[in-house]
Amino acid sequence: MTFKELNLIAPILEALEAEGYTQPTPVQEESIPIVLQGKDLLGCAQTGTGKTAAFAVPILQLLSKPPVDNSHKTIKALILTPTRELAIQIGDSFAAYGKHLRLKHLVIFGGVPQGAQVKALHAGIDILVATPGRLLDLIDQKYISLKDLQIFVLDEADRMLDMGFIHDVKKTIARLPVKRQTLFFSATMPPEIQKLADTILTKPEKVEVTPVSSTAEKIDQHILYVDKKDKKKLLAFILKDKSIERALVFTRTKHGADKVVKDLYKDGVRAEAIHGNKSQNARQRALNNFKTGEIRVLVATDIAARGIDIDLLSHVINFDLPEVPETYVHRIGRTGRAGAAGIAFSFCDEEEKDNLKAIQKLIGKQIPVVEGHPFPPSDSGLVKINLPKNKQVVKRPDAVHSGNAANKKRFNKSRPPKKW
Ligand code: AMP
Q1: What secondary structure letter does DSSP report for 355?
Q2: N or C: which terminus of the chain carries fewer CB neighbours within 10 A?
Q3: Is 338 a pocket residue for ligand 1 (Cβ < 6 Å)?
Q4: 334 ligand 1 Cβ < 6 A
Q5: 0.70 exceeded by the pTM?
Q6: Which CATH architecture has domain 219-363?
C-alpha cells in the first residue's frame, strides 16, 4: 500500500515524501480512509505506531477541500492532548505534512505566559493543538471560540485519565458543537475511557493496532539482575560503550532521575534529565540536545517521557522496573520505532522481582537474562573477590572464571549475547 493509493492530494504526498515516509503504517492505512469519509473513529493505538499522521494527514486534506477559507478566522479542528511535549510534536507534524497547504495551526499549553498564544489566536488559525488546562483558561477568557469546530481529536485519552485531566476533557467536550466529526485515540481502554468514547462518538469505526500486551517483537529485551546499590555502576558501565548511540534511561521518580544524572557525571558520562519539576525551557533544551546528538543519554520519568518523539533511539534502559506492567511496554516502545531495531535493558533488584513477574505475564514471555556482567547480585552465586584497584574479578563457585576485563570486552557488542 502506498500513500497515493489512499487518495491523498499532491501537496500532502509531496510533504510525506520529504519526511522520508515511503508507505503508511497500519494505523494510517486503516484510519486515513475512515477520516476522509467524515466518519467518527475509535483508534486503539499507542505513540510510536504513526497515529499522529493517521489523524493529521486526513484532517489537513479535509480542511483544504474547496471552498477554502483563507481568512483563518474560525478554528475548524481541535486536537486535545495531555502533555506539552505531545502538543509540540503534533504541531510539528501539522507543520511538516501541511507545509504546501495554506492552513494555519497553533499549539497552546500551560506553564508559559499566555501573551504570545493570545496574539497568535487573534491573527487567526484553522487548527488548534492544545493541552486541557490552558485551553479551558483561554476559552473562559473568550480568546477561543469553538462554535465553528468541524473536527475534534482526543489524543491519548487513557493518559488524560491517568494524569487527572478527565474532568477538564469532559468540560471541553461540553463546549463543542454537537454536529462534528470526532476521532478518539487511546492506547488502552479502561472502563471509564470506554464510557467516554461511547458518549462522545457517533457510530465510530474501530481501528486497533499493537495491543499493549504484545511487545514489539523487533525489540531485543534483556534483564540484568543487580543489587540496588550497584545499579548506578552497572549503568555507567553499560553507557561507556560508545556503540550505544542514543539511550533513554527510565527512573521511577523525579528525584531518582536527577540522582542518576549526577552519578553518571561522576563516572564521566554526560546526561540530562527531563521531568515535571524542570521548567518547560529546561525540558525542551534537554530534548533538543538529545535529538541533535549533543548528549547521548536522557534520563526521564514515565510522564515526562510519554510521547517523546525521537527517531533512531537505539536503547531504552529501565533503571527501575515499573510497578504497572503496561508501563514497561510503553517504555520499551520508545525504541524500535517506525521499523527500526531497538534494544531494551532492564535492571532488576531483589525487591523488583514481583514487578518482573507481572511484566512477563503481561507480555506472555520470559525476558532473556544477561549473565556474567560485572555487577552480579549478591545472591546470584557469583562471588566478587576484592583485589587491588581495577583487578576485581567475579568468580563462580564452580571455578568458571569470568573476569571483569573479559566481561567488559564482551559487553562492547551492541547486540549482547545472553551470557557476557
Ligand atoms: P507517532 O505514533 O505518531 O508518535 O509516530 C511515531 C514515529 O513514526 C514518528 O517519529 C513519525 O515521524 C514516524 N512515522 C509516522 N508515520 C510514518 C511512516 N508512514 N513512515 C515512517 N515513519 C513514520
Answers
A1: H
A2: N
A3: yes
A4: no
A5: no
A6: 3-Layer(aba) Sandwich (3.40)
